Amino acid sequence: MNLTNTNLVKTSMALALAVTFAAPVMAGDEINFYGKANVGLQMSDEGGESETEVKSNASRLGVTGDLKVNDSLSVVYKAEVQLEMADDSDDKDNIKGRNQYIGLKGNFGAVLLGRNDTMLKQSQGKIDLFSDYEADIKNLWKGENRMGETVTYISPKFGDFYAGVSYVAEGDDDQGGDAGVSTAIFYGDSKLKKSAWYASVALDSEVDGEDAMRLNVATKLAGFKLGFIAHSQEVVETGDETTGFLVSAAYKINDFTLKGQVQTSEDDFGDEAEKTAFTAGVDYSLAKNAKIFAFYTAFDLDEDVTGDEDESYLSTGIEYKF
């Protein structure tokens, strides 16, 4: 058995054993086991070269826990891994680390230590309608960082407002020897279930070699869920800057959800380069936690300036959350 398959077996067994034995061993600890299987058949055209592939779109397994110490203090933890369900290559890892942390939660808010998404990454909420697919905003913008050595503080809510800070230690391999800080202020509910508006503003300082800023707004209007992001980023060492925006919209008709999204990226160093991603998709609900999805994404990468050739992707697949 090769090393990749060995790691897969070990991790799967560890998660299974944790779920099986956690409840009786840790009485009073609220433990939740969850996961998502998302796999699609995809036709990819990259620079005129086409291929058909089966893609695992950030399928995952995880466990969370909340151990009540007293009426004002709890120990919380999360351990999540990504499973490449459709990748049988011997030279690739079938398991990747996602958010994995432990911390304390109480009237003061929450303090978390470990691998975690930065506040800037968290700030967009649910505005990116094609997260984990080819049109994920990380493909044109920096800032979608999940850092390995972080201390995160999330404040209690003050009305509909709350704030968060991520400190990234200089020992993190992606930091290059300098510490980084990511901060954000949030308003409302990112899922738009408890409020009609969601908004946030976030700043990164020297996180993964970049300074970045985002303004995020989402709302419900006449049956539509609408989202907008304004983004800017700057390489700390060179001062090279990129700006862009994203607009998304979703509309539900019975069991169907129609979705569309446009994202831009413009570099202001050297010859200006504009990159644009257009995506349209539809989800069909099979049950509360299961759906069939389809999407088409086209990247206009300004070949004359960037040297990158245009790309397009057509995919359909199924997702089940548990």
UniProtKB/TrEMBL annotation:
Record lineage: Bacteria, Pseudomonadati, Pseudomonadota, Gammaproteobacteria, Alteromonadales
Topological relation to the membrane, as annotated: Multi-pass membrane protein
Oligomer and partners: Homotrimer.
Pfam families the UniProt entry points to: Porin_4
Subcellular location as annotated: Cell outer membrane
Residues in the signal sequence: 1-27
Domain Porin intervals: 14-302
PANTHER family the record matches: MAJOR OUTER MEMBRANE PROTEIN P.IA, PROTEIN YDDL-RELATED
Taxonomic superkingdom: Bacteria
Organism of provenance: Thalassotalea fonticola
Keywords noted in UniProt: Cell outer membrane, Ion transport, Membrane, Porin, Signal, Transmembrane, Transmembrane beta strand, Transport
Name of this protein: Porin
